[in-house]
Design goal:
Nucleoporin Pom152; 1245 residues; seven-stranded mixed beta sheet; Ig-like_POM152; TMD_POM152; 94 strands; mainly beta
Length: 1245
């Protein structure tokens, strides 16, 4: 049952039935070789769990929920401030995910092609763009057009709605057509599309296509030539197998039985050259064969011969491609360097001495060059070896990948597609088609800060790291070690021996694990670097490449001394010591650093006593650990008698002093008391000498005279005399800094004054001007305080400020800087602070407003009259104020409105609300100005009241009524009026006749009641419509009501009888024509007519009366009436129209008939007509196109028949059909010109 042909209109078969017999699928005929069609993929959700219709129902339900969500987001764009771009992006993402997920579910009938998927995504994107960016669309216009298309109805002469298209385009008027076939000769072709074919381990068989045309073969013989042995064999395809192949071909091409050409697929598994040898059809005759060949070879394949993975920069790649295919061969490969694609390359391989004839896969007729297939060596497979030698000039990861191989016949092994679509198979082949190289940088080696001119000086017996630099030999990064170094060592004692012998005996090798590791050396001598190598690559040794290591001698010291004597008393006071040093550079324990080999030091103690000097240890730059000198006994002894001296304690620290104050300091004295101390005080170029006598303490507290000038003083000790009378010169001195002036404090100013105003309660910073040195301590008080307590504040800036929060006068009391007391400037001792006054509001009283108790009462006004109240402000403009407007209508609930205004003037006017009647109260609740915001605790609200009276009004009891009578009648009617307001009323009316431009005014005074009956004038007897309008009403309060915009009115109509006239004078009409009349009178109209011997009545809202002629018959109009007239006195008329039936034609009795004839034969075509003779008709001959193509009109002919039937003979192939028919009155055509209907009435009888 699965092989049964299905109708085109049938639903597609379910996935389960489609997978039962995969052999029924047509083989693939793409350029890569014919292969079996892939089986359809199973659905993601098995049908055993949820069947296909239920899955489609769930998808529809989910999509409906998404649509409701989308509409909700669209509605929020008008109610909330939401960004439309965000919603657009959101729904684009949701739709994309939904469509991708839907395609991944693989639900039957919901599996789309990539083009359909793209179209759906674009349609959703356009809908989201229109909705989320609120782009207006003419939806109502589209809806009206859609309604017109879906529900196009029109009133017909039978007074029922019909569809005009069904009448105007009646396809049943022309029925039937005849198809004439000329039978062709049959043929068979092997491999009609010249496709290549190949087989291998992964594809064990392929399909050979055999195209048959206009024949049904029962036997086919194929000739196969073996490529390796040239042996020939004949393969016979039986009738049973041919029937199976024919059914598969018909099913695959969706063609009905016996429609040609058909493409049969014959499976083969052997390589070789195939040729059609014989084809026999059902008549036992041989079918014509198109000379052609089909070559089936092994599929091309390739692999790489692996080489070592690690290479050095500058090496050659040195690997090989090997290809097994039918040459010439094209090999494409790609190269990737450090993850970056370096492009693709194609190699064209043509082995030497290869002779390939030009082998067409289809042999032209008469060409016998390849009919003899004894020599088929040109189709044999070969294995080709391709060496690849490329310089690896960049370090990093190199990758060579074979992308594809194609042979001479067009068979392709596409590994790049396999990498994308068949990852499992590609992984199994990856090691054969990819070659990886890791290219390493070569190292470079050099010494640093060491050569024969600058040797390394190292302490004897200690090792030292050899200063070397290992770097990359190129711009790339050098990998970490290990590194292998070889070097030549020349011992210090063998420096002058034969170098050749030294090289042979002193070559040494060491290994360094990392870039930052070093090699330790210990023996003195010359180290010369020879080679360097990393784990994979040999490197280069750069200059400088040698280093000299020496061991300097140990440091040593010898001394000589000379005493120092006092010139006054002759006593020893110290020693001069000469130091003779050995080493570079040297230092001893009592000397910080000595840079010369010979120097002299002075040892002069400050106090009297016996001194012993011992030189105990010595070290230098090389021998950092001190070496003992105890073995040399370098000791010096001396008795010292120190001379008198004086020192100032902390002489390096400058002293500070105030103006007109004395400075004090501490002096330390040595010697035998009593002492006499001389000093001098230097300031401003003047020198003052002084003397202090009878000093017995070694610590003397010295005080200077008052320092009256500011600046720097220098106090120097000049001499000291002790008990021995020996006077010693002194060099001690100390600096004393005296302030130039006394500290001072004063208030600063704001705009030249020491007064300021601010908002009440605001914090103010009062500026201060301070002189002296920071920090300052300032005392001040507020004069208005009862206790006048002072406040102290520490300030650090000379232009600092004090913060106050109260108004009043602030006075400075005292000031101190960091060291001295100061003065207060009497002229700037005080500062005044005041508050800015708060705003207030008041109502300006007058004759129309009075103050009563706690509110203002304003005179009553009429509704709509303008009125205002003046408001006065105090404070700083602009003023911000708010008031509540409370409205109490005559009937109903109260209304409250809040209003805010800003006034730039001190006086403003408040417009009173008078649009609606009732009691209004205006309560001012908030007030603020430029300085102050509203403060409800300090503001006193005020209120204003006013009564608004309603305006009087008038209306007709039956507004809009038409009071009518016929022309010539006499009489009048009473029109009732209703008035509102306070009686008595004064009424003004306007009477206007449409034919006269100037209206007539009527005044009615002293109407004492709210109901009044208006007497219409009897003179309103002219033809036409008269309008009575209420213009103005005034009541007892003096309020007036004007009816200008929509005044109440009634109409008085004096009418005449209506009329009707045809828009065309013709009498004959065709079915589908429109019959139109023009009406005069007052719509709506009633038209009375007879059709099909039945009286009918039609209601016409306008002045045009049109009906569609849907049936043949007599259409007779008998009477008409309008709105003003009545059916009893309607206008009598007599208009007759005759509706004719449309002509029709039947070809082959209205059926589609097919006639097969041979070349030169004829076929008869029968035409039957309906209508009124004579008949003029046009028929065409069209081509018989392939499937899904439009036919082409080949010939058009016109014929005339005076009878109701006609026979025409045809001898040419094509489709014959009538396109137009015309009888005596009407015509119909299926060929519609632009903007025309397919039928028309004939006027020339």
């Amino acid at each position: 049952m699965n092989g049964t042909p299905r109708l085109r209109s049938a639903f597609p078969s379910s996935p389960l039935s489609a997978q039962k017999d995969p052999k029924h699928n047509a083989p693939n005929t793409r350029s890569s070789g014919a292969s079996n069609r892939p089986k359809p993929q199973d659905p993601t959700i098995p049908f055993e769990l949820v069947d296909a219709p239920s899955q489609r129902l769930y998808v529809l339900f989910f999509y409906s929920l998404m649509t409701l969500w989308r509409i909700y987001d669209y509605s929020t764009l008008y109610s909330d401030e939401i960004d439309g771009f965000w919603l657009f992006t959101k729904w684009i993402g949701i739709d994309t995910v939904f469509l991708y997920a839907l395609s991944g579910l693989r639900i039957p009938w919901l599996e789309w092609s990539s083009s359909t998927f793209t179209a759906l995504l674009l349609v959703h994107g356009v809908i989201n763009w229109l909705l989320m960016f609120r782009i207006p669309l003419p939806l109502f216009t589209w809806l009206g057009g859609l309604t017109k298309v879906l529900y196009d109805r029109e009133l017909a002469v039978s007074e029922r709605k019909v569809k005009p298209a069904s009448i105007l385009h009646n396809a049943s008027l022309i029925l039937g057509k005849q198809i004439v076939h000329i039978l062709p000769e049959g043929s068979a072709t092997l491999n009609p599309h010249n496709h290549p074919f190949c087989v291998d381990n992964s594809k064990s068989s392929t399909y050979l296509p055999i195209q048959i045309n206009q024949t049904m073969p029962i036997t086919i013989d194929l000739l196969r030539v073996d490529i390796e042995t040239s042996d020939q064999e004949t393969i016979t395809i039986s009738a049973k197998e041919l029937r199976r192949m024919t059914k598969q071909a018909q099913k695959a091409s969706s063609l009905q039985e016996h429609n040609f050409p058909l493409l049969l697929q014959y499976p083969i598994a052997k390589t070789g050259i195939y040729k059609l040898q014989r084809v026999v059809d059902e008549s036992k005759l041989e079918v014509q064969r198109t000379p052609s060949l089909a070559v089936v070879v092994e599929c091309p394949r390739g692999w790489l011969r692996a080489k070592p993975r690690h290479k050095c920069k500058g090496d050659l790649s040195d690997f090989r491609f090997q290809v097994h295919a039918a040459p010439p061969v094209k090999v494409s490969y790609s190269k990737v360097l450090n993850g970056a694609d370096q492009g693709h390359a194609t190699l064209h391989l043509h082995p030497e001495n290869l002779h390939k004839p030009d082998v067409p896969q289809r042999i032209p007729s008469g060409d016998k060059s390849l009919t003899n297939l004894e020599d088929v060596s040109w189709a044999k497979m070969q294995t080709i070896d391709i060496p690849m030698n490329e310089s690896l000039g960049v370090s990093g990861d190199w990758l060579y990948v074979i992308d594809g191989i194609s042979d001479v016949f067009g068979n392709v092994a596409n590994y790049s597609d396999m990498r994308l679509h068949d990852a499992g198979r590609y992984r199994s082949m990856k090691s054969h088609i990819e070659q990886h190289f890791s290219v390493h940088e070569r190292p470079s080696l050099t010494t640093r800060a060491c050569d024969s001119q600058q040797p390394l000086k190292v302490e004897k017996g200690k090792s030292f790291p050899l200063p070397i630099d290992i770097k990359s030999g190129g711009p790339g990064k050098l990998e970490d070690g290990p590194f292998t170094l070889t070097y030549l060592f020349v011992a210090e004692a063998k420096s002058h021996t034969d170098e050749t012998q030294l090289i042979a005996n002193s070559h040494q090798t060491t290994i360094i694990l990392g870039l930052h590791d070093r090699m330790d050396i210990k023996e003195p001598g010359l180290y010369r670097l020879q080679t360097v190598a990393s784990a994979y690559c040999e490197g280069e040794v750069l200059e400088p490449s040698s280093c000299l290591l020496t061991n300097p001698p140990e440091p040593d010291l010898s001394i000589a001394s000379e005493p120092i004597t006092d010139k006054c008393a002759g006593n020893p006071i110290g020693l001069y010591v000469d130091l003779n040093l050995l080493g570079t550079p040297l230092s001893v324990s009592i000397i910080p650093r000595v840079k010369q080999l010979h120097t002299q030091i002075e040892l002069r103690p400050r106090d009297t006593g016996h001194y012993t000097y011992e030189f105990s240890r010595i070290s230098d730059a090389v021998y950092e650990y001190p070496i003992s000198l105890a073995r040399k006994s370098l000791v010096l002894e001396q008795d010292v008698k120190a001379p008198p001296s004086a020192y100032v304690l902390d002489a390096d620290i400058p002293r500070r002093a105030c103006v007109d104050e004395a400075a004090s300091l501490v002096v330390l004295l040595t010697g035998d008391p009593p002492f006499k101390l001389e000093y001098e005080l230097v300031h401003g170029g003047k020198r003052i000498r002084g003397l202090k006598e009878d000093i017995y303490d070694e610590t003397f507290y010295m005080t200077t005279e008052p320092l009256s000038s500011g600046g720097r003083y220098t106090l120097g000790l000049t001499s000291l005399t002790d008990k021995s009378g020996c006077k010693m010169a002194l060099q001690a001195e100390v600096k004393i800094d005296v302030n130039l002036q006394r500290p001072q404090a004063a208030f600063g100013s704001y705009d030249g004054s020491r007064w300021t105003s601010a908002l009440e309660g605001q914090k103010l910073n009062l500026p201060l001007r301070l002189q002296g040195e920071s920090p300052w301590t300032v005392s001040y008080h507020r004069v208005e305080d009862a206790n006048k307590a002072s406040v102290q504040k520490i300030l650090r800036s000379s232009n600092d400020f004090i913060e106050v929060t109260k108004e009043g006068t602030y006075e400075l009391d005292d000031v101190h800087d960091s060291s001295c007391p100061g003065l207060i400037d009497a002229a700037a001792r005080t500062f005044n602070v005041s508050w800015i006054p708060r705003p207030s509001i008041a109502v300006r009283q007058g004759t129309s407003i009075n103050h009563h108790k706690d509110k203002y009462i304003k005179d009553d006004v009429c509704q709509g009259d303008e009125d205002a109240t003046d408001i006065v402000f105090t404070g700083a403009a602009p003023f911000n104020y708010e008031y509540e407007q409370r409205y109490k209508p005559v009937h109903g609930s109260q209304a409250l409105a809040h209003k805010r205004y800003v006034s730039g003037l001190r006086q403003t006017a408040i417009l009173m609300e008078t649009s609606e009647p009732g009691l209004y109260e205006y309560k001012f609740s908030k007030l603020g100005d430029q300085s102050y915001s509203h403060d409800r605790r300090r503001f006193q609200p005020i209120s204003i009241q006013q009564t608004v009276h309603p305006r009087p009004s008038g209306a007709f009891a039956e507004t809009g009524r038409m009071y009518k009578y016929c022309q010539g009648d006499s009489g009048s009617e009473l029109v009732p009026l209703i008035l509102t307001g306070q009686a008595p009323f004064h009424l003004e009316l306007e009477i206007k006749q449409h034919a006269i431009s100037k209206p007539e005014l009527i005044t009615i005074p002293h109407i004492e009641s709210h109901h009044y009956n208006l007497q219409l004038p009897r003179r309103l007897n002219s033809l036409g419509t008269h309008t009575v309008i209420i213009r103005k009403v005034r009541d007892a309060r003096g309020c007036q009501g004007y009816m200008d915009r929509s005044p109440p009115q009634v109409q008085i109509s004096v009418t005449e009888l209506p009329s009707i006239s045809p828009m065309e004078e013709k009498v004959d009409y065709c079915v589908g024509d429109r019959i139109s009349y023009t009406l005069s009178g007052t719509p709506p109209f009633h038209v009375f007519y007879n059709f099909e011997d039945k009286p009918r009545r039609a209601s016409v809202p306008g002045t045009d009366f049109t009906r569609l002629a849907e049936k043949p018959g007599d259409f007779v109009i008998t009477a008409v009436s309008d709105q003003r007239s009545t059916d009893v006195c309607k206008a009598q008329v007599q208009f007759t129209k005759i509706i004719h039936q449309m002509p029709n034609v039947r070809v082959s009795k209205g059926r589609v008939s097919t006639v097969d004839i041979h070349e030169g034969g004829e076929a008869e075509m029968m035409f039957d007509f309906g209508g009124t003779p004579p008949f003029h008709f046009t028929y065409t001959r069209s081509s018989i196109p392939p499937r899904k193509k439009r036919p082409e009109v080949l010939e058009t002919r016109n014929e005339v028949s005076n009878e109701y039937s006609m026979t025409v003979r045809a001898s040419e192939e094509g489709t014959y059909e009538v396109v137009s028919i015309r009888d005596r009155y009407c015509s119909f055509s299926t060929q519609k010109p632009s903007g025309k209907d397919g039928q028309k009435r004939i006027t020339n009888v």
